[in-house]
Specification:
nine-stranded antiparallel sheet, four-stranded antiparallel sheet, 22% strand
């Protein structure tokens, strides 16, 4: 019988030639699950395919995990469930999981992050010592949950230290930390050690903005409507606003405390060479993100909570000036929890680390460059061009 070979893209230092042999039925089943689309599209064969995958041998785990790389979100859910069933069956049969292959997969950052996290998690039972030994290697990992584990480990090692050793350990953890709670814990520890840090710079918040006059969002129709700021470059008459602590721009203050409105916020970022990075925003309101006039992200959802890295857009900034334009929409809900109208925005690399760029701000009729995350000289809000 003809058999297909799926060669895993393994990281440096792994066993040469390590492969997972995939029989045709499994290969077909994986392709079927990968193709399942939203709302059940192309899902007629999914249950049968799921059974094939879930009854596979442990030695096929690498191939199944690799299938996450090309899976749709719905397909990934099927795959995750199938992996759970496969592992439970392996436990019942007292069959061993392929530890070496799981380690190689977890270490290879080119693979799907969810699948890598799953591979590492499977090691917790299969080989606890290896599971634990891998955690420190994730300190600069692009997968946020693996990175969080590594930062948690680094914090545990820093806590018993004293003086300069403690400061150095906490600062090393801070470079890797992305989550607010972990960053807050590190900031408090460093402050107690007499070394306070600037969280605005750490998170690379964009602090200087120009805010448009309001536009209509009656019946939430404004989100889809293309208002002038999306198609025209003129920003005359826009109001200068500075982010408060935590990078927050409160549009209730900068524009008006009214409902059913749309506001745009513009910031000019300057880079010395083309830069691949991410625009990361958080808001309780519907949002669109534009870079240099091109829409790069949208989410039409209101009052669903707010947290850092909530809305991420992978972009390439071009050498010279670049405009980051946010469209923030407020709806008609009148409850107290629906009052927030604003945003936080930052620039980072693919792992969430700050990128060294400049921001162009207008002060005293002249453009000035400041480091992103640095609070510019105090200035009263004013109408530009007036």
């Amino acid at each position: 019988m003809r058999r297909f070979l799926l060669t895993l893209a393994l990281g440096a230092g792994t066993a040469a030639g390590l492969r997972a042999e995939v029989p045709p039925p499994l290969d077909t089943a994986l392709r079927t699950l990968n193709a399942v689309g939203p709302e059940g599209r192309d899902s007629e064969s999914a249950p049968a395919a799921w059974k094939v995958v879930s009854k596979s041998k442990p030695e096929h785990l690498g191939a199944i995990l690799a299938a996450f790389d090309a899976a749709t979100p719905v397909g990934a859910n099927y795959l995750r469930s199938a992996v759970d069933a496969l592992v439970e069956k392996a436990k019942a049969d007292k069959a061993k999981l392929p530890v070496e292959e799981l380690v190689a997969f977890a270490k290879e950052t080119k693979h799907n992050g969810t699948a890598r996290k799953l591979a590492h998690g499977l090691l917790e039972d299969a080989d606890p010592a290896t599971y634990k030994s891998l955690i420190p290697t994730f300190l600069n990992d692009p997968q946020p949950d693996l990175r969080r584990l590594a930062v948690e480990s680094a914090l545990a090692e820093a806590k018993p230290l004293k003086g300069d050793s403690a400061i150095a350990a906490y600062k090393a953890a801070l470079k890797a930390a992305r989550d607010e709670d972990q960053v807050g814990e590190i900031a408090k520890a460093l402050k107690d050690l007499g070394t306070p840090i600037d969280l605005t710079k750490h998170f690379n918040f964009i602090t200087e903005w120009h805010i448009s006059p309001p536009f209509d969002n009656k019946d939430e129709a404004g989100f889809a409507k293309v208002y002038d700021p999306e198609s025209k470059a003129d920003r005359t008459g826009w109001t200068y606003a500075r982010a408060a602590a935590g990078g927050t721009v409160d549009l209730n203050k900068a524009v008006a405390k009214k409902k059913e409105l749309v506001a745009y916020a513009s910031a000019t970022i300057v880079v010395e060479a083309d830069l691949d990075c991410e625009v990361r925003a958080s808001t309780q309101n519907a949002i669109k993100i534009f870079v240099n006039g091109k829409e790069v992200y949208f989410r039409e959802e209101y009052h669903h909570g707010q947290y850092l890295d909530q809305h991420n857009a992978k972009v390439t900034l071009k050498k010279g000036k670049n405009e980051i334009l946010l469209k923030i929409c407020q709806n008609a809900l009148a409850q107290s929890w629906s009052e927030p109208w604003g945003f936080v925005c930052q620039l980072s690399d693919r792992t969430g680390a700050a990128v060294a760029v400049k921001q162009s701000i207008a002060k005293d009729g002249k453009d000035q460059l400041v480091d992103l995350g640095a609070i510019a000289p105090a200035s009263e809000p004013k109408k530009e061009g007036k």
